[in-house]
Structures are given as C-alpha cells and as structure tokens.
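Contributing: when you submit paired examples, paste them exactly as shown. First protein:
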Amino acid sequence: MEAAAEALEELRQLPYAHKMAGVAACTLLQAAWLLRVASHASSPPARLLLTLPVLAANAAIPLAFKRDTEGVTVAFAGFMLAWLANFKSLALAAGRGPLAQQPWSVMQAWVLLVVPIVPASKRDAENPGPPLMLFLRWLLKAAVTAAVVFALLSEPPAFIRSCLYILGIYGMLGVVMDGPAALLLRPLRLQLAPHFRAPWESPSVAAFWGIHWNQAASNALRTTIYDVIVEQSFLGGGLADTYHCHPAKPTANGSAPDAAGASTANGTAPITARRRSTRLGGTAAENEAAGAAAGAAGSGAAAAGAGKPAAPAKAASAARRALQRRRLWGMAACFVASGIAHEIIFIYVTGHTTRWLSWQLFFSGQVALIAAERRLLAWLQQRGTMPRLLVRRAATLAVLMATAHPLFFQPAEVAGVAALFAASMRESFAALAALPAQLLAVC
C-alpha cells in the first residue's frame, strides 16, 4: 500500500500537460479495447469481465490530479470518466447505450466514451443544431459562466449565491458539452441529441430531471439502470452481430441509422427506439399511456376483448400495475445511483463525503418529490383545476431550489468546493482575456 501511495504521489507531481496527454492515450486505448471486446466476446459475463480493467482505470484517473491546484480537473474526471464513461462501458457490455447504437469507428467511440454527449437517432424529435449553432451557444454559455463567477465576488446573500451556482453549473456543463461537440461533429460525422432542453421550461420535477437537465447523465442512468429494471433484463441487444458488420454509413444529416432500418435484425432496436415516455422521470400522463400500451400488448387480446370474459382485461390491468411499479423502482434506483455518484465525485475533490450525506439525500429525496407531484397533478386533473403552464414551471423551479439550497449548494460551500470552482474559473477567464495581448507582444 505504501508503495502504491508513493507511486500515486509521484504521478501527481508530473506536469499537468503530461497527465492530460496520458489520460487521452489511456481513454483512446479504452475505446479500442471496448470495441474489440464488443466484436469478439459473445457472452455477456465475458464482456463484463473484460470491461473491468476499463472501469478500474477510469476510477483511478481522478486520483492522478492534485486536489488543491487541480480540483476542477479532478471533479470533471470524476464526472466524465469515473461516472459517465464507466456507465457507458457497462451499458456496452449489456448491448445498451450510445456505444451499442451502431458499430462506431475507434475515434467516434473515443469521443462518445469520454465526452458527455449523446448521439442522436432519427427518432429524436429535435437536435442541438449545426456546428456553428453549437459554437455560438458555447460562447453564450461561456459568457454566462464568466458573469456568474465574477458576480460571486460581491458576496451576495446565501440563497442568491445558490441561484448563481445553478446558473453557473448550467453554463459550465454547456461549455464542456457544446465546445467539443462543435469541434467534433463534422470531422467525426456525428449528430447529437440536445444536452439540455431549456430547464426553466420544466413543467414538473420529473420532466426537469428526465427531459430538460443534463441528458448525458440521464442517458447513462437510463441505459444502465432504469431500462434494465423496467425491461427485467440486463441484456439489450446482440453486440456480436452489430460489430461484425461494416461500420454503418451516416445518414444525410450525419445521424445514426434509424432503429427500424439498421438495428432490428441484430437485436439493438430497443436501444435506439426508446419511447419518450420511458425516459427517466417521464410525466404521469406519458407513463400512463405507455403503461396502457404495454399492458395491451402483453395481454394479447385486450384490444379485441369486448364481449369476452374479463380475464384479458384483468391481465392487462395487472400488467399495467406491474409496469408502473417497475418504473417507480427504476426511477428510485436511478436517483440513488446519482446520489452515490455525486458523493464519490465529492470524495475525489475533498477526500470525504458531504456532511450527513446531504448530496445523497438531495437526489434520493427527488423520488418522494416526484411521487407526491404525480399524485397532486392527478388529483388536480381529476378536479379540472390544473394550473397554467407558467405556474407549474415557477413551482417546479421553486421546489428544486428550496431543496438544492440546503442539501446541495450549502454543503459544497461549507467544504470550499464552490469557492474552488469559482476561483479556478476566474483564473481561466482572466488568462483568456490576457491571451490577445500576450500574442500581440510576441508578434
């Protein structure tokens, strides 16, 4: 153990650029290895076993950086590699997730593994736009992030700081996602799903987490946990058939092939043909509609059961209830897993968990909020007194901020994480602002 600790400390002392180059090389090898495993290992247990070295490497990478001077890198390595990349790797072993969507090239798989982005399919109702639009959005979010970190210098009241933090997180994640996407879309022939869908337009807490906020994390949780529980199967497709094919050519707009046209034969249709209603935290109406459809399909005769014995109707009703229970358990498992992942990132940055595991409480508590919200909305709908959309949006943001302020942002502030991020971002923006003058001086 002492030898390992000494080796790790020596690794931390390496120049930052050398460590980043090492991370790039390591993750590129991971992408190539995962594609080879997907192509040659037909047994799911074998794929899982061969994926373990990737999981271990990604969990170790954040430890190679210094907490005091490279804390932001530690946090993003924990988020992008120890969490998202590992979840994508596990999903691939099960025939699920973005890496199993089609036989990607090594470079495409590398980007999809490392960068928090989600590839689009033809069934996506919208896309984030062309590279130029992504670049302009990146500039806007960078400006928002800069405004937030410099506004924090005035030391506003605690709740206002929490509001600024959430705006800063939105901008910072946008910078991390939209910047690489703008650069890589055209060279790698990728079409992406939107990363965020206007969080301020969320009509419910469920819609906020499932549709509007950080789709990279939502997709990772959905493909590795939610879909497994709802479908009662760890496996999502036949990877051997998929990766023995020649790489699929992108469509005219660069998107992945439609599930019906390219993936049904090899068993990967469930990956790209997900219903909108089965997204993590879908609305009550969406889930009820999906449950009714699934129940009717499961009964085999429910649609044509008029005038016949009531057994098919009872079977359909039981199937709907079972589906709703699995969705509830799947949603709960996703929020618990998200809380654990956030606590692990906090450990990477600080060396300890949040006090009273408050981040875990925050995410786990969303399950109770969503359950109560669905009951309330169903009751209001029955009474015919459903609030206007603007009122629902305002109530959603108020509830989220009322829980995030004491359970998420204040613990981060007490531990110094918020100040660390703000100071690091201010230094980065100051360096960028000084760059033109430095270039002119050199010329």
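Second protein:
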Amino acid sequence: MSPEERFRAAVETVLRHEGGYVHDPADPGGETKYGISKRSYPELDIANLTREQAIEIYRRDWWDRYGYDRIKSLDVAAKVFDLAVNMGPAAAHKCLQQALHACGQRHVTIDGVLGPQTIEAANNVRPRAMLLAALRAEAAAYYRQLVEQRPELKRFEQGWLNRAYA
C-alpha cells in the first residue's frame, strides 16, 4: 500500500467517525464539520468546508505533522490518528504510550510526544493486534475518566466508547 493509500484509508476512518456539520452547544468541540472545529480553525467558514478541504487539513496538520505514517501497522496508525482528532494529539499519544507499557514496552516515556522511541516500540510489538487491543482499552479508560471528571459530558460517553473500541 502506498503512503497516499495509507493516508486515505486512515482519513476515511476519521471522516466516518466525525460525520458532517454539527453545532451542538454542549459539545466541547463547538462548531465542527468533518471533525474540523471553529475553535481550532477560527478563520474557516466551517459550515461551508468541503470534504476535500478537510482531508487536506488532516494531511497537513495531523498526518504529516505528527508523522503517523512512521507507524508500520496501518490499523495502529489510523487508530492513533483518529483518537488524536477526537481527544487531542498529546492525549492520543499518551494512550499509545500506555498501551505500549501494557504490551511490555516499559522503557517508553509517557509524555504525549510521538517521537522515535514511541514509534520504534510501536513498530516492534508483536503481535500487532495486541497493541491495537491495548490502545483501544487505554482510549476507553481516557474517555471514562474524562466523563468522571466532567459529568456534563456524560451524554457523549457512549459515542466516545464506540469510537475507542472501533
């Protein structure tokens, strides 16, 4: 699979989870379309954002910026990318690092940075399905803790858990 095909497969996962235009006052993300938020991109006309514009933003500001393509397993790369869009990159990267600890890679620093140490460890875990399962569990734990700390977000919990385990 080419780098472009890998990105396209991963971004389709994000777009499937994010859906279209939403302006829910209770959602911490605020006004969003395809997961692109007005809060993060105040200069954009979110309501009129096209799918292709969203894809280019995800390529430039997420996939390329954080180097998700360095993760050999597309399933793991796509999951970390998808989680980063939803919970923020530092939180998603910490989930990956905690999952790596659960898989025996205890030398990895849990700092939220997707650096060479984290990438190398992610690429060396066998079987890769073990890492993906641990990552899903860490994401679910993150969302549960978030709802515990902020009970007003309870209405989003089931959707977040569905995303964590997807």
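If you have annotations for the second protein, write them as plain sentences, like these:
The chain has a mean pLDDT of 96.
The first strand starts at residue 32 and ends at 33.
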